Amino acid sequence: AQTVTQSQPEMSVQEAETVTLSCTYDTSESNYYLFWYKQPPSRQMILVIRQEAYKQQNATENRFSVNFQKAAKSFSLKISDSQLGDTAMYFCAFRGDKLIFGTGTRLQVFP
Amino acid sequence: GAVVSQHPSWVICKSGTSVKIECRSLDFQATTMFWYRQFPKQSLMLMATSNEGSKATYEQGVEKDKFLINHASLTLSTLTVTSAHPEDSSFYICSAKSSLRSSYNSPLHFGNGTRLTVT
After folding, report:
1. How far is CA B87 from CA A30, B117, B119, in A?
2. Distance CA B75, CA B22 (A)
3. CA B83, chain centre distance (Å)
4. Residue B104: its pLDDT value, please?
5. Dihedral angle at the C-alpha atoms of A37, A38, A41, A45, nearest 10 degrees?
6. Chain A, chain B: beta-carbon pairs less than 8 Å apart
7. With an 8 Å Cβ cutoff, is A104 touching chain B?
8. Nearest residue, CB atoms, A99 vs list B34, B91, B112
9. Secondary element (H or E) of residue B31
């Protein structure tokens, strides 16, 4: 069975600074996708970024980028130039035949 | 973009009654839909995978007789919480995968969730 672990229950960062959220996973599958989702207080799930496991190049979406280390089964999210609107719960997720979420990291961006 | 509508957004029911939650894909067909439950300050836990025209696949520990899932069309899946109890109070979220995309690279589209309170 797949597992997804986020070891940081809470993180905080000052506006305009950079923060990295950690995620590790465990799987025996070779073909899968990894995602980071954002869940603001509205509880809507918002896709932030995704990474195909067969691609070595790290995905980037504007201020969001990942550090994907397949051998280490690590998938961290870096948020650059943090904004107040980035305050939310962030979930790392593994997608094989189904989407499994990590426990989440609550990110607070301070002015 | 792809839109998933979930209804109702919140519901309060009395203990012992049943509640139905609908999940609709508005502008795409969804062969597969997923139902999640989220307790306060916790992660989303997959309850079951709903496949159009066939029985749902439930995760370990989820009572199939209590959480009835029906996926009768390519755009609608329903979750019925039967004989609800206060411990069933939670946030329920559905997600849908477009039938047109392959399994692994197809993004999931989430509904806005349903907050269920059982009194």
Report:
1. 38, 9, 10
2. 10
3. 17
4. 52
5. -40
6. 45
7. yes
8. B34
9. strand B30-38
